[in-house]
User: Fold Gluconate kinase from Levilactobacillus brevis.
Amino acid sequence: MDYMIGVDIGTTSVKTVLYDTDGKMQGYSNNLYPLYQDEPDMAEEDPEEIFSAIIDGLTTVLRKADLKNGTLHGVSFSAAMHSLILLDEDHQPLTRAITWADNRAVKYADELRENGVGKQLYEKTGTPIHPMTPLSKLIWLRNDQPDLFKQARWFVGIKEYVIYKLFGVLQEDYSIANATGLFNIFNMDWDDQALEVAGITRDQLPKLVDTTDQITGMQADYAGVIGMDPQTPFIMGASDGPLANLGVNAIKPGVVAVTIGTSGAVRVVTDKPKIDPKGRVFCYYLSKDHWVVGGPVNNGGIVFRWVRDQLFAPEKITAEQMQVDSYDLLTEIAAKVPAGSDGLIFHPFLGGERAPIWDANARGSFFGLTRTHSRAHMVRAALEGIVYNLYTVMLALEEVVGKPSSIQATGGFARSELWRQMLADIFEQDVTIPESPEGTALGAATLGMYALGMIDDLSAVKNFIGVANVHHPNPETYDAYRALVPIYIRLSRQLQSEYKNIAEYQRTHVHHINK
Assistant:
């Protein structure tokens, strides 16, 4: 049997998956690591903990491979976007990995948006201006931690650091570079204006390579620990969003991937870079002739967790005693409430928001509460609010790339029948659930197979995944959702003028906020 490994370096864990050449999972490992949030708005990880998790994952899945009667053809990487690590002359970390979820650069991102420079940069980089990006983080570090900033010789992300440790070469793929806010998507190189704004030079950044680029010659001691031939090709791979689209076979024009895990995203593939004149969506590179246009949202399953923990603590305990999933129990409660939650609307901005409003100060709210509303209405409104928000991202996307032809939905929420149906009803589109539980790792493995010439085209991914089920929209819900979505959208706009004020109040008066 021949094998390919996909490694997905995520925000909370590394998933390492061993596939055969038919795309069937033959081994799986999920290695967790902590997110450090020692102060408000901080979200960091330890690069060494992530590196150990990758070594453990590779070691674990390789044990499942029968290498006496088969070959491991390669390993291909996916990684979360927007991470930043400062390295010294000897490539030793001066910082932890500052993740996309870190909001400490919010002041500088706001300045870029207000002074017009942000718009110029977005139109060249395809990366919206937001504290998540290395561009904003570099400005923040340069201004607020100048000594640390001056000490740095290199500015890299987590994937580049891992590859440097394994192979001793410092290089970055176009897809990860694209998400830094420092990369020009029209000339495929670091952008001079962005570098100037960030206060760095191109010789402080890794060499740029394509997502299909291969590296061999792993450091012998790591190869020995893992039990891998050091000449096994490692494929650079891409960032997690574009690879998630590939891994659910949403790479034909018009096929939209909607993912809701802890956070969420709505994405579609085009054959060349496309920019939104209003700056609401990103455009990220996947491979030659494949660009992914979409919008990420902060508030997916994490909102459902808040509802469970804060509003349904007794039910959570009951579920544990009954040995049933607490989310399933809450979904049953929500299902008893009619579509539209009897006019209760929830804005799910518990952690600021990225697409489509790009406002780190955004806050959540219930609107329309009356005495007749119950906790059951609140849980349903929260679930609907998450989908309304994704739908507003879809509306922005439609302006850039046209109407979707179909929707592929994935992520933890896809396990819930109610939520899948809600998606179909609010989007008024058929929703297909592809059968590929680790879509991002499968996307990485597929790109790896393509890079190695094992498949002729990325569309071969359709042979690797099945279809779990299809949900058709229910016309009986149209009236409710068609009436409420415009109210949801208008409210978002009207509240935006006050988000900054309430966020400022919370930062100065509420010490545990964002912890």
